[in-house]
Design a protein that fits this description.
globular, auxin signaling pathway, transport, membrane, two-stranded antiparallel sheet, single chain, Amino acid/polyamine transporter I, mainly alpha, 15 helices, two-stranded antiparallel ribbon, disordered N terminus, 4 strands
Length: 491
């Protein structure tokens, strides 16, 4: 994955280390950490902000629909199960940040470094492939979600001005292009550790739109005078009455698992976030606290938003709570909520993509160390701020990356199905399998011991859930493609 500040590797030695009287670099000084890198300054709160930015993403908006497929019993139960598994495996993963010793062991700067140190072999390549494909997929999913929210603002105003007489159909393409242009600018932020301010803004935005969604759900329930929904979810029967066939029920239930998995997905960037945290205390202790805070907060929000959305709409819960137009008024509040979603997704896109950017740039610098195009940094003066480090390779490759994700988003603008598929593909390998296997290797847990068996049962159970979720989401995408025309989707 490369380190979270790949550019630091390109600095001359006198910029990276303090130098003692005998000319040798000193580590562990006031300005540098024990590995000779610039002192990490992250805390429980900045790490929590990064995690919340990554976790409370657009996935929260699909939870009412997911619970509608599963019902009042299975829906909240599955959500609690995913939250527990995510928290537990994240604590296992955070213990792998340092090799062998939690205080003085060698740092693993990235998820792939941790896999390399603990497992090695072909598993490193498999991990990298799954991780980077997932990060790439998340960028596509967030581009789709942001465009839908921007369109929702335009449509709610259109409905309001036409008194609901105009269907207000529009293309999603201009909105995806606008989001892409914004991301090209923000993608030039060199390193993960310079994103803390964007993460805090994004985290605030995520609470804003989640709270609005929750409040609107409560108002809708009060307006209905009853709690909608059933114990088993959407009913099987006549489609004209909002029911589904038995086959559709199965596929949708599987897809709902993927949507919930996506809503909790952040393990793929946990090590990168941990590499921004200062010590003492040990990074694993800080990360465990940040994980507990973040997962607890997000689970509370998820339960409230998902359950209130289902209580408000029952079986007809929209796939996206704030853009599915279950709510129409007050339209200005919906506009604020959708604007908050867009701002949040700008930050979330960067939190997920920076590790991928760093990986490509580190490997390019390693392969072509003499190329000025790749390694040279131009200091651009910024009035009132520190000079901006402009790198031509970073400018070109990151711009091409954003353009690629934007074009693919325009080709496949299926929010619910894409979210479910991403959640399914990333959940088992990155959230469960690798953390469990690395923890077993690092702690030298004996094979066939009680602890080893429990960890393997957890892994296999999550694999079965992942396969089911992927199947449901693929079935949804196939169904969407039957009525789809490239670059001409309108809402």
């Amino acid at each position: 994955m490369g380190d979270n500040a790949a550019a630091r590797n390109q600095l001359p030695h006198h910029q990276v280390f303090d130098v003692s009287a005998d000319g040798l670099p000193q580590t562990g000084s006031k300005c540098f950490d024990d590995d000779g890198r610039l002192k990490r300054t992250g805390t429980v709160y900045t790490a929590s902000a990064h995690i919340i930015t990554a976790v409370i993403g657009s996935g929260v908006l699909a939870l009412a629909w997911a619970i509608a497929q599963l019902g009042w019993v299975a829906g909240p139960a599955v959500m609690l199960l995913f939250s527990f598994v995510t928290y537990y495996t994240s604590t296992l993963l955070s213990a792998c940040y340092r090799s062998s010793d939690s205080v003085t062991g060698k740092r693993n700067y990235t998820y792939m470094d941790a896999v390399r140190s603990n497992l090695g072999g072909g598993k490193v390549k498999i991990c990298g492939l799954v991780q980077y494909l997932n990060l790439f997929g998340v960028a596509i999913g967030y581009t789709i979600a942001s465009a839908i929210s921007m369109m929702a603002i335009k449509r709610s105003n259109c409905f309001h001005s036409s008194h609901d007489k105009d269907p207000c159909h529009m293309s999603s393409n201009p909105y995806m292009i606008a989001f892409g242009i914004i991301q090209i600018v923000f993608s030039q932020i060199p390193d993960f550790d310079q994103l803390w301010w964007l993460s805090i803004v994004a985290a605030v935005m995520s609470f804003t739109y989640s709270t609005i969604g929750l409040a609107l759900g409560i108002v809708k329930v009060a307006e209905n005078g009853k709690v909608r929904g059933s114990m088993t979810g959407i009913s099987i029967g006549d489609a004209s009455l909002g029911a589904v066939t038995q086959t559709q029920k199965i596929w949708r239930s599987f897809q709902a698992l993927g949507d919930i998995a996506f809503a909790y997905s952040y393990s793929m960037i946990l090590i990168e976030i941990q590499d921004t945290v200062k010590s003492p205390p040990s990074e694993s202790k800080t990360m465990k606290k940040a994980t507990l805070i973040s997962v607890s907060v997000t689970t509370l929000f998820y339960m409230l938003c998902g359950c209130m959305g289902y209580a408000a709409f029952g079986d007809i819960s929209p796939g996206n709570l704030l853009t599915g137009f279950g709510f129409y008024n007050p339209f200005w509040l919906l506009d604020i909520a959708n604007a908050a979603i867009v701002i949040h997704l700008v930050g979330a896109y960067q939190v997920y993509c920076q590790p991928l950017f760093a990986f490509i740039e580190k490997n390019a610098a390693k392969r072509f160390p003499d190329s000025e195009f790749i390694t040279k940094e131009i200091m651009v003066p910024v009035p009132g701020f520190r000079p901006f480090r402009l790198n031509l390779f970073r400018l070109v490759w990151r711009t091409l990356f954003v353009i690629t994700t934007t074009v693919i988003s325009m080709l496949l603008p299926f929010f619910n199905d894409v979210v479910g598929l991403l959640g399914a593909l990333g959940f088992w390998p990155l959230t469960v399998y690798f953390p469990v296997e690395m923890y077993i290797a690092q702690k030298k847990i004996p094979k066939w011991s009680t602890r080893w068996l429990c960890l393997q049962i957890l892994s296999v159970a999550c694999l079965i859930i992942t396969i089911a979720a992927a199947a449901g989401s693929i079935a949804g995408v196939v169904l969407d493609l039957k009525t789809y025309k490239p670059f001409s989707t309108s809402y």
